[in-house]
Every structure is written in C-alpha cells, then in structure tokens.
Design brief:
Elements lengths: L4 E8 L3 H12 L2 E5 L4 E4 L4 E5 L8 E8 L3 H10 L6 E2 L9 E4 L5 E5 L23 E7 L3 H12 L2 E5 L3 E5 L4 E5 L7 E6 L5 H7 L2 E6 L6 E5 L6 E7 L2
Parallel strand pairs: 1-4, 5-8, 9-12, 13-16
Antiparallel strand pairs: 1-5, 2-3, 3-4, 6-7, 7-8, 9-13, 10-11, 11-12, 14-15, 15-16
Length: 239
C-alpha cells in the first residue's frame, strides 16, 4: 500500500481572518484561498484551514486530513481497522470529499484529489523575504496511544518513529503525528521553526500571550487567544 500523506489541518475560530493574520505574521504562512467565512494557509507542504464556528463542534483543532490513492479501495481497510463508516462531505469543499473517524472518534478527511481547486500560481513561496516556518508535527490526545497507533500504520502506511510510556510518534516521511496521553485542554498544532532569531518578538507582536516549557514535548509552547480558545504551538529550533 502506498503511504498516505498528512497534508491538511483544520481549526475553528470565532474570527478566522484575525487568526489567519496571526499565523501569517508569526510564521510566514501564505494565504492561498479565502472567502467570507474561511481562510486556507500553506507552508509549502501542509495546508492549515481556519474555519468559522460550528453549531455542534468545539473551537480549536477540528480535524486533519490525508491524501490517499483511492478512497474506495481504502474502505475495507478502514473497516477492518475499526474506523467509522466513510461518509460523503458536502460538495464544493476545497480539499476533501469524504470523512471518517478513527477508533477514538477523531475526525479525518480523506481526499484523492488534494487541493487541486487552488491555482498552481498561488502555491509559490511567500511574497516577502520572511522564511516560511513549516508545520511538521500534529499532536492529538489519546487515552491509549499504543492501541491507536496500529490504526494509522495499517490504514495510512505511517511509520513508527518512537514509542514511549505516554506517547507514540508516527511519520509519513514529512509530517509527524504524535499520539499523546496527556491531560491538557486542547489539541496541539505544532510548528517547527527553522530559526529562533527574532521569533519571540514576532510572536508577541502577533498575539501570543504565553511562552512556557513543556516537560512532555521538550520544547517551548506559545499560545494565541485569537480563536477564543487556546491553540498551542511548539517552537522547535532546527539547524
């Protein structure tokens, strides 16, 4: 089975435009699609969709999505792995046509076409000299990470990078998906920062209100209040 690619993260915000501006200013993400209600940002690989509130869902992280070869051939694999029934999404979506839930109820979008609705000329590097700081890790909470991990390895072909008492780290060779057993009030969309110089002032000017250490993830956490509910970001310096 060809490995699927985790290329889509969606959050809900009471002010999608304001939150989008935060990610653009703080991390250099590029706006590639927008309408009166939602904004799609891009880091060169992953798309961050910032959607308006839902009557039934919470604010903050809402779902994530994989590009797969063929949704139809994946149906029996999903069923055997303990997923919910694959359901069609409303027409006109920028990324997905299908939705499924993993064994712990996390919503996952499935797409065979990816973001082919976005013109290629929009998917270029940023318009200024600021480097894009890439999103390369998504952390979701799990009561039993070791039991949930086989779902992602069997269905999406992800590889296991690390297994510990409180977490399992998976990868599709670009993105990491961390299944974390930790009692915190929100899911984490994690940004890997390519350089630390000037990041702290830029974060503060962009609406970050708290920077603290994380004993479980080992990096620095900043939070933005722009969505009405905290979305935490790990700032991980790389060479």
């Amino acid at each position: 089975m060809k490995q699927a690619k985790l290329v889509h993260i969606a959050v809900r915000s009471g002010e999608p435009r304001s939150l989008a501006e935060f990610y653009k200013r703080a991390f250099g993400l590029k706006e590639v699609l927008s309408n009166r209600r939602a904004v799609d940002l891009w880091d060169g690989h992953l798309f961050l969709a910032i959607n308006p509130p839902s009557a039934t869902g919470p604010m903050g992280l809402n779902h994530f999505g994989f590009v797969v070869d063929d949704v139809e051939s994946l149906r029996p694999v999903l069923s055997r792995a303990g997923a919910s029934k694959v359901e069609a999404r409303p027409a006109g979506r920028s990324f997905t046509d299908w939705r499924v839930h993993d064994p712990e109820g996390n919503p996952i979008d499935l797409s065979g076409r990816g973001y082919n609705t976005i013109p290629a000329e929009r998917l270029q590097n940023g318009t200024d000299d600021r480097a894009i700081n890439a999103v390369r890790r998504l952390v979701i909470l799990s009561q039993k990470p070791e039991e949930l991990a086989p779902f992602y390895t069997e269905v999406f072909g992800m590889d296991t990078v690390k297994t510990a008492a409180h977490k399992v780290v998976l990868t599709d060779s670009v993105m990491q998906l961390v299944l974390l057993n930790l009692s915190i009030p929100t899911q984490l969309a994690v940004f890997t920062v390519t350089g630390s110089r000037g990041m702290k002032p830029r974060m503060k000017c962009s609406g970050v209100w708290k920077i603290a250490s994380s004993p479980f993830l080992g990096d620095r956490i900043g939070s933005t209040k722009a969505s009405g509910r905290c979305i935490s970001v790990i700032l991980k310096k790389t060479s």
